Amino acid sequence: MRTFATLAAGILVLTAGCSDGPARLYEAEYGAGRGIYDARPGQPYAFEEMTLCLDEPGSAVVTKVAPIDPLGGFEVLGFSVRPAGHGRHANDLEQPTDRLAAAGYPADGPMVVDDVCPDDQTGEGGTIFNLGVEVTYSATDAGTASGFLVTYESGGESLTVVRPFGVSLCAAPQQEPTPPECETRIVEHG
Length: 190
What we know:
Elements: H1 2-18, E1 25-26, E2 32-36, E3 45-54, E4 60-68, E5 75-83, E6 111-113, E7 129-136, E8 142-145, E9 147-154, E10 157-163, E11 165-170
Parallel strand pairs: 2-11
Antiparallel strand pairs: 1-3, 3-7, 4-6, 4-9, 5-7, 8-11, 9-10
């Protein structure tokens, strides 16, 4: 019995030591992708399907969102975060050409995620945040990225999280089969 109590106390100390690190961004949903057809080079496109929340109480300030494996001059023009369902609908971007600010996303200031993820089993408690991103491309046929690297500050540290969300901006109309340059690639992670 004494061995069990000593072991339990040791585990408690180890567990308490593990939570001393900063709160980390966690992907509330897994990887996916999005293809936009009849796209025009240089035109901004926006989407808000990526989500974030924290693994433990605290806050994180998103400082940068960069494409992973960009092709065709694919680049991020801007980003914003806000609690999911904050606007008129769960997702307020009705068209991919809508701008984040017009859909009610904050246009400036710190982009803060400050609540834990909802319970995996019940879905209760916590808050999921949408990560809205505006992108464009410069090639004549397509621009793609296989995901996004999100850089953030938490607990005085600079950290990153990979969001496996592939995007394809394709100049061609939607067709079967998908032209190779327009295929949506999703980065391997985890």
